[in-house]
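thought: fold this chain, then report.
action: predict
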Amino acid sequence: MVDLLIETGLSRNIAKTLVFLSKRDETTSVEIEKATGLRQPEVSIAMQELRRRRWVDKRDIKKEGKGRPVHSYRLSVSWSEILAQIDREEQAKIDRIEANRKKLKTFA
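observation:
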């Protein structure tokens, strides 16, 4: 599944993170790092993009004592809706390519 998502244009880090999230109700960035083999900055950048697309919600879990809160993440829309959105984006690419091919043929 990761390779297929990469073929659609998602980055490797986003694809790995997204597939892992699809299998969990909620998870922390540390769990994502361990499961995917990504480093903290890579997970952080992937999560920014997934949140920008509105596919992921973030929640801060306050730790006991001082220190930064732990970030918890979960999909904000269903896995099937995410796949449907990617499918629509892929179809739009195909439509643009076909339109360009038609235009090119007018110059032949």
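thought: worth noting. DSSP finds five helices and three strands in the chain.
final: tokens above.
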